[in-house]
Amino acid sequence: MLTTRLRATLDVVTAIVMLAIAGLLLWLVVKTGKTPVGLVADPTLPLVSLDGAPSLGDQSAPYAIVEFSDFECPYCRKFASDVWPEVKTKLIDAGQLRVSFRHLPLTKHPHARTAAEAATCAQRQLKFWPMAEALWRSELADADLRSAAIDVELDIDAFSACRSAVASGIVAHDIELAHTLRVTGTPTFLIGRVVGRGVRVVGVLYGVVPISAFEKAIDAMKRMR
């Protein structure tokens, strides 16, 4: 049986090793511009529901992404402009992948929460995705949110009522889900197999990852039993 002192020493060594690995992965991201893909299932994560969030993709697609994003996050905006169109065309429209969007407005971004609420209200009128495109291009001041709503032809009275009544609670639910899943930054992509009406997460991608990272993740899941 391990002594208390030896166990404590091993815990310290393990912590140092984990920090070294994390530092190496961060160095790789900075040095190469690529995000390592770790497809290791975390049994402590619950099955992540696809219900209730704006989604795209074939309902029978075998794999799915749950994306946590922030409309004021510069990395989220870069992903939306540089990578998302290709992911949509090559993976989502091709039937390989579904995507479910979840809000994680960071407190350091003053307009992120109200932008998320505006997008939520557009979702209630089945126009989340065009609204999202408008918001990525917007400065996100209150006048900009209303202008975006007009541009995508929302019912403005219903939009305003939603913003004042229900949107905050819906966004708060997504934030709570992010905390449950230990998601703290944006954009974060949980990728996994579709199981019923949810996703069994087997990998996590962070930041402005290229489409090749999603393709590699899908290829790896195809090889997993």
Summarize the helices and strands and which ones pair or pack.
Elements (H helix, E strand, L loop, with lengths): L3 H29 L15 E2 L5 E2 L6 E7 L4 H9 L1 H9 L4 E7 L8 H12 L4 H9 L5 H10 L4 H10 L1 H14 L7 E8 L2 E9 L4 H13 L2
Parallel strand pairs: 3-4
Antiparallel strand pairs: 1-6, 2-4, 3-5, 5-6
Please tag this protein with its features.
225 residues, 16% strand, single chain, alpha+beta
Verbal overview:
Helix 4 packs antiparallel against helix 5, helix 4 (112-123) packs across helix 7 and helix 4 packs across helix 8 (167-180). The chain has 225 residues and is α+β, with helices and mostly antiparallel strands. A six-stranded mixed β-sheet has the order 1-6-5-3-4-2. The chain is globular and about 50 Å long. The protein contains nine helices and six strands, in the order αβββααβαααααββα. A hairpin with a 2-residue loop joins strand 5 (188-195) and strand 6. It starts with a helix and ends with a helix.
